[in-house]
């Protein structure tokens, strides 16, 4: 069905079920309980999960398949965001033109950068992309935000003002991004006993788009084109010696993955109409590399898992402060309580980077294939089977 | 490829799906009209403290968080009450806000607009915060202020000094107690003219982003009005850590004053470089070369060490002030944490109290009622003398301190001395002043 093999189809269906039921799955704890701290089922974070999922899926098409490690992918994310907000400013708050333009603009931008940077491979390619991304960041942060030609609004971030043209805006429509009148912010809260679940329009729009992106990624992975990309990764030199020009393939992969990033950027603006230059900073580019490696580079579902894990840490662990810890460990005797809190405190709150770093190290050392490999090992443990050749070929080899 | 065929069942299915799709907007919007966003339930109210805990302003953020915790204690009737006792409005009783115990959630802005907005959104959507406050840079303040306007909660900004926060980016749901670039210029210029003379030639190094520009524009305008000339304004990248290449041209420019429109780590580095180049010992046409840092903070002064001695700048508040309110605040902060508060801590503490007081006076947590209570509110006893929350742009008007790096500090906190308290009248401006024009406060938004 849908041109997919059974294995891929079941993966797609599982992902579809997970994303559609996310408001339930991510809110396992009752609202008033102490564990509610760990609930992730609120609109903003769920939107981030799927949007950064798209970003990572796109990055994986380049990195996972061709092995070209781009360190400047955030530039496309940023360009997409700016394009989308400009559509809001000029046309009105309907998200469709913005999202479409963000894909087109980032595609063109990727083409321009790809033509230049893909002349080199390996570390040189990485450094070139990094340089371009930092150039874009500097342009967005200060150069293109001067009062005479203000394209990005600099530090403050591009946003919609009341006196912007918004040619197609009317009073009947919401004063926030919407899809034909359906506000991205509209949320239905469902209370079920002690639980509360939130169903948000913006989230479901992003989730549907992510499923489409995921489907497209599967098709690319399984296509002859995808096979070519894998050939580039395994031995580009040998490919060139056979008389085949591999550049068009890598360029196509680069542009596709840039468009994915642009789409993610456009969606970020669609659910929250402000585009800041930090989206282009090298830390943002590094983040998507982490997501992909953490989840499992070269696998289909890995990048989405990695994106989810990092965003979860950033938003949930960073909010555990000292008073929350005192709440948890209050049952212990005073001296012991303080001792335990001193031990735990550096790893939560502002120390969430530290915890993430530790997890990243553990994954890279013990699970080189990322979380996906972890899942496979657990699965094997339960089935009590030794890894067979057949099982191996069904999954994609992780990037080294 | 399969050929599309039109079956009766298909048509019915599509029709039903389209019907549900069209009915959804009415259903969702109908579900969401219940007064205002995050109306406090039960006997507690949740405030969101969104401060930088990592990144360049983490020090300020940590101090802000201390101040917030202190404010919550005082509001809930614990501790010695601090400035609640000296506050001219005596509505707060130490039983929380309107009898509801104050609880809080914290988040990390990372001094990035995106992270700050994500953190604020999680406070609003998940934790039910009815007010967001904090932040240590103008970009973040403006980004979060915009978000709070859209979401329908009140934003009480922390440390933000750019003119734009209450200028072109002002919002009805946002309020600023901190002073701004224009006020710095207006307060500092007369002191500079008095101390250094009126025929000075200034060379500006400016951090290349919104705050730097507005700060430079403000201080250049204020000093030029008093007879100074601006020789050159050089923009420096925000990420710069070594300013040697920017300082060298100053030596031969003929300028006799260097103005460093830098903040945080930038300022620490540029000032250190300038001193290393011997600018402070330099004589130009028989005049002593001087360095000026328009926005000073104690945390920055500590970073720059010896180099700040004798340098003039402006600040919102300083712990050495002798009025009763400042003393009360320094005492309760010092008792709890063992050292005096910074200006960032002060403004955050005051903002929390002002919000609580406005809710109590309005008798409601509804953002629109709070906005009404804060607009045009005159108060005293919070460390800055008589202060007005102007209705037109939600900016506080109060005295501004001109400070100087102390020559003989007695402790690691005693780094600045107050040179002059510039009266409020001197730093006031019209709401439609060109440096603040272009914004629109809009309508207060109570949200859902």
UniProtKB/TrEMBL annotation, chain A:
Signal sequence segment: none
Protein's cellular compartments: Cell membrane
InterPro entries for this protein: ABC_transp_permease, LivM-like
Keywords: Cell membrane, Membrane, Transmembrane, Transmembrane helix
GO CC list: plasma membrane
Membrane topology summary: Multi-pass membrane protein
Domain of life where this protein originates: Bacteria
Chief location of this protein within or outside the cell: membrane
Spans traversing the lipid bilayer: 9-29, 49-68, 99-116, 123-144, 201-221, 248-268, 288-313, 354-372
Name the record gives this protein: Branched-chain amino acid ABC transporter, permease protein
Pfam families noted in UniProt: BPD_transp_2
GO molecular function, one term: branched-chain amino acid transmembrane transporter activity
From TrEMBL, chain B:
PROSITE patterns, alphabetized: TAT
One Pfam family of this chain: Peripla_BP_6
Domain Leucine-binding protein: 44-406
Keywords associated with the record: Amino-acid transport, Signal, Transport
InterPro entries for this protein: BCAA_transport (IPR051010), Leu-bd (IPR028081), Peripla_BP_I (IPR028082), TAT_signal (IPR006311), TAT_signal_bac_arc (IPR019546)
Biological processes, Gene Ontology terms: amino acid transport
Gene3D superfamilies noted in UniProt: 3.40.50.2300
Record keyword Transport present: yes
Signal peptide stretch: 1-30
Similarity comment: family membership: Belongs to the leucine-binding protein family.
Protein name (Swiss-Prot/TrEMBL): Branched-chain amino acid ABC transporter, periplasmic substrate-binding protein
Origin species: Pseudooceanicola batsensis (strain ATCC BAA-863 / DSM 15984 / KCTC 12145 / HTCC2597) (Oceanicola batsensis)
Taxon lineage: Bacteria, Pseudomonadati, Pseudomonadota, Alphaproteobacteria, Rhodobacterales
């Amino acid at each position: 069905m849908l041109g997919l093999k059974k294995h891929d189809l079941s993966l797609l269906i599982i992902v579809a079920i997970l994303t559609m039921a996310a408001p339930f799955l991510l809110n396992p704890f009752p609202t008033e309980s102490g564990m509610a701290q760990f609930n992730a089922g609120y609109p903003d974070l769920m939107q981030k999960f799927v949007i950064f999922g798209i970003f990572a899926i796109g990055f994986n098409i380049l990195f996972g398949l061709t092995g070209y490690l781009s360190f400047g992918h955030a530039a496309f994310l940023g360009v997409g965001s700016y394009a989308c907000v400009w559509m809001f400013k000029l046309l009105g708050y309907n998200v469709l033109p913005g999202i479409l333009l963000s894909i087109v603009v980032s595609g063109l931008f990727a083409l321009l950068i790809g033509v230049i940077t893909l002349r080199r491979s390996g570390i040189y390619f990485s450094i070139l992309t990094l340089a371009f991304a930092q150039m874009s960041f500097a342009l967005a942060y200060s150069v293109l935000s001067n009062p005479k030609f203000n394209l990005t609004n600099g530090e403050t971030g591009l946003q919609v003002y009341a006196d912007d043209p918004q040619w197609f805006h009317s009073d009947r429509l919401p004063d926030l991004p919407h899809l034909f009148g359906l506000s991205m912010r509209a949320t239905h809260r469902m209370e079920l006993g002690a639980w509360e679940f939130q169903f948000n329009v913006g989230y479901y729009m992003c989730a549907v788009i992510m499923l489409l992106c995921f489907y497209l990624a599967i098709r690319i992975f399984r296509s002859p084109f995808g096979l070519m990309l894998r050939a580039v990764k395994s031995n580009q030199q040998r490919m060139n010696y056979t008389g085949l020009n591999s550049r068009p393939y890598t360029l196509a992969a680069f542009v596709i993955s840039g468009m994915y990033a642009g789409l993610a950027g456009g969606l970020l603006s669609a659910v929250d109409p402000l585009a800041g230059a930090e989206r282009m900073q090298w830390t943002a580019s590094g983040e998507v590399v982490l997501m992909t490696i953490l989840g499992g580079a070269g696998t289909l579902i890995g990048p989405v898992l990695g994106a989810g894990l990092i965003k979860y840490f950033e938003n949930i662990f960073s909010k555990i402060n000292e008073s929350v810890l005192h709440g948890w460990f209050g049952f212990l005797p005073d001296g012991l309580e303080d001792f335990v809190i001193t031990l735990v405190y550096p790893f939560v709150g502002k120390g969430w980077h530290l915890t993430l770093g530790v997890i990243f190290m553990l994954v890279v050392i013990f699970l080189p294939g990322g979380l996906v490999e972890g899942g496979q090992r657990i699965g094997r443990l339960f089935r009590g089977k030794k890894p067979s050749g057949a099982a191996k070929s069904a999954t994609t080899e992780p990037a080294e | 490829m399969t050929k599309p065929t039109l079956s009766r069942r298909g048509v019915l299915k599509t029709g039903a799906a389209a019907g549900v799709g069209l009915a959804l907007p009415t259903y969702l919007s109908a579900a969401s009209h219940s007064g205002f966003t995050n109306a406090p339930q039960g006997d507690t109210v949740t405030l969101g403290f969104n401060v930088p805990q990592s990144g360049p302003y983490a020090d300020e953020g940590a101090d802000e968080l201390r101040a917030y915790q202190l404010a919550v204690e005082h509001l809930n009737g614990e501790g010695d009450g601090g400035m609640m006792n000296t506050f001219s409005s005596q509505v707060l009783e130490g039983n929380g806000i309107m009898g509801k115990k104050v609880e809080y959630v914290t988040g990390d802005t990372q001094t990035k607009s995106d992270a700050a907005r994500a953190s604020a959104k999680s406070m609003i959507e998940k934790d039910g915060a009815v007010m967001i406050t904090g932040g240590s840079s103008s970009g973040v303040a403006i980004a979060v202020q915009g978000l709070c306007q859209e979401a329908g909660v009140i934003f009480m900004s922390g440390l933000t000094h750019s003119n734009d926060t209450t200028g072109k980016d002002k919002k009805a749901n946002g309020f600023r107690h901190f002073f701004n670039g224009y006020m710095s210029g207006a307060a500092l210029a007369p002191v500079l003219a008095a101390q250094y003379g009126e025929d000075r030639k200034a060379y500006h190094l400016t951090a290349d982003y919104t705050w730097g520009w507005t700060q430079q524009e403000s201080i250049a305008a204020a000093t030029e009005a008093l007879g100074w000339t601006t020789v050159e304004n050089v923009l420096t990248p925000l990420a710069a850590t070594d300013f040697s290449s920017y300082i060298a041209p100053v030596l031969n420019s003929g300028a006799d004053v260097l103005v460093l429109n830098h903040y945080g780590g930038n300022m620490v580095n540029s000032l250190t470089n300038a001193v290393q180049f011997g600018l402070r010992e330099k004589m130009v046409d028989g005049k002593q070369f001087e360095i000026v840092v328009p926005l000073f903070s104690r945390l920055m002064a500590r970073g720059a060490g010896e180099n700040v001695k004798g340098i003039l700048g402006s600040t919102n508040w300083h712990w050495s002030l002798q009025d009763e309110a400042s003393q009360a605040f320094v005492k309760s902060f010092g008792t709890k944490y063992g050292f005096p508060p910074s200006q960032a801590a002060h403004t955050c503490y005051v903002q929390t109290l002002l919000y609580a007081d406005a809710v109590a006076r309005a008798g409601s947590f509804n953002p629109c009622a709070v906005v009404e209570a804060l607009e045009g509110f005159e108060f005293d006893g919070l460390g800055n003398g008589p202060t007005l929350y102007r209705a037109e742009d939600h900016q506080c008007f109060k005295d501004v301190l001109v400070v100087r790096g102390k020559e003989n500090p007695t402790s690691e906190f005693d780094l600045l001395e107050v040179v002059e308290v510039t009266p409020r009248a001197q730093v006031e401006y019209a709401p439609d002043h060109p440096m603040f024009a272009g914004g629109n406060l809009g309508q207060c938004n109570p949200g859902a």
